[in-house]
# Entry
Amino acid sequence: MSYIEIRNIFKIFGPTPDTGLSLARGGVNKDEILARTGNTVGLHDVSLSIEQGETFVVMGLSGSGKSTLIRHLNRLIDPTAGQVTFGGEDILAMDIPTLNAFRRKRLGMVFQRFGLLPHRNVIDNVAYGLEIQGVDRSTRQEAAAKWISRVGLAGYESKFPDQLSGGMQQRVGLARALATDPEVLLMDEAFSALDPLIRSDMQDELMKLQEELHKTIVFITHDLDEALKIGDRIAILKDGKLVQVGRPEEIILHPADAYVEAFTRDVNRGRVIRARSIMRPIEDGLPAHDPNYIVDENERLEDIIAKSLSTESPIGVKDTTNGIVGLIERHRIVEIITPTSP
Amino acid sequence: MILVGLYARWFNEQIGQSAIMFPEQLNVPLGKWVNQFVDWLVINYGAGFEAFADSLLTVLVALEQVLRGAPWWVVLIVIAAITWHASKNWKLATGLVIAMFAIGVLGLWDKAMQTLALMIVATSLAVIIGVPVGIAMAISNRLRAVMLPILDTMQTMPSFVYLIPALMLFGLGKVPAILATVIYAAPPLIRLTDLGIRLVDQEVLEASRSFGASRKQILFGVQLPLALPNIMAGINQTTMMSISMVVIASMIGARGLGEQVLMGIQRLDVGAGMEAGIAIVLLAVVFDRIGQAYGKRSQRSHAEDKS
# Structure
């Protein structure tokens, strides 16, 4: 069993959720349920398994239910039906004190509009989670100072949120979520409110932190490029239903339906797809391949184009043991980067 | 016109006066019931009311003694210090000291101190009652649904009406005056406390919950500090309303500036009434400015350390 298991979650908002639930289970669609009963289907039979240590991205447009979904993981929202377990623990069975203890120790959350406490300065904001846990002042200030410098805000400890730029505020938000050393980091459109350049910086920063920390990250976004960049796996939601779950390359190379395909059309494929996914596998390895034309199986397409262009013959792909496991012809790269379908 | 007149006359003659007047059988003797209820309260719980009145009176009298006993210039210095603490603005502090000085020049210093004591006790009581009720309303939608019409009634009811039951329960004097003032002055504070808490940014609340904060931690660590500017505005309103009520309350025996106004009316002494009126306005200005300065301070409290 996976670390986080979400099983058959339904969330119906409205006056009579139970009626809505039975209609939704009976296969009546979202619009009709709204018209007939005034209930809005937020999530429709969503099941996900999230592994420990992975960065799991939930992607969808506004109204797709992604923010509702992430709030089920720490029970800011209770489902109408379904199950959520962390390492086998059923969080829906927890009473309020147990739930609060669980939130304090094991979860950290980062919000789209930062959710910082405007009446506290940076260090007291970062120390907030520890304060809630009842950690004494000097210990929590020390821990907070460490995380503040870790996210590159050393020197800003006594500033207030409204004195900082958006990017800096979100660094505070990130430091605050990490300060309690949670197992799971929930990020709700954490970078969506930031300028493109700063957003890209923050993505890099998060990936760098994750290389050292190995948290389980659940990241919500409406931006497919962001999802493809930081996600180990991606789930795509549409109208409260799960459309596809897979690694970034799977999503691009094998979109589950026309909706996903339309989404992925404008993506820079060269940056997402890696050599391994498009090579023609060979069984026994080549006896002698020109070492100048060998690439690593994890190299991105955009990084191997130059090598491919400089030779007429296919380039070799090596695995971690340095054995050649596949070949990539030049026309294959062209085919992948410019898909024939309109 | 003539036709209508003729018709009315015919109608009167045929049907008679009884059809025009509202039938007396349908009258509900609400006034009598209220009287009976108040009598019942006095008979059964009179001792309790008296004990409550005594303790309130003790506080009031002590405060009044302090204010009236203190040399006038000490009071001026205290006013200046409070204004400076609230606003860090020496011009405002000077202005308010001049306003208080003017009350003394009008020969109404002693009466103003009586009014001030009454007002401070009434406002404190309104805060002690109003803030918790406002918090409870913000937490419970059901309580809010019950309280809103009650608050509407409290605010639209002519303030004189409050004097009557207060008078019956506590007799003439300062205590009923304070209670009538509290009933009249607490609603804006209750409303603004409720509003302030409800206006707290949902995402900040969610963040607080997501870190596992208990309801108490959320209330005292997030909701109340962020609602403070609204609560301060409410306290300011309450202060202003208690000043205006204190005047009316002089009709049931509260001493002070209101008494002077009342005397002016009774003796047709326009000048005396005017003097007292000006003194009340000056007192109101002083407290409004101090209250507003504290309100602004709570609004920018987090930015105060900005360098």
Notes: Residues 110-303 of chain B form a domain with the MetI-like fold fold (CATH 1.10.3720.10). Residues 30-69 of chain B form the longest helix (40 residues). Chain B touches chain A through 22 residues (CB under 8 Å). DSSP finds twelve helices and no strands in chain B.
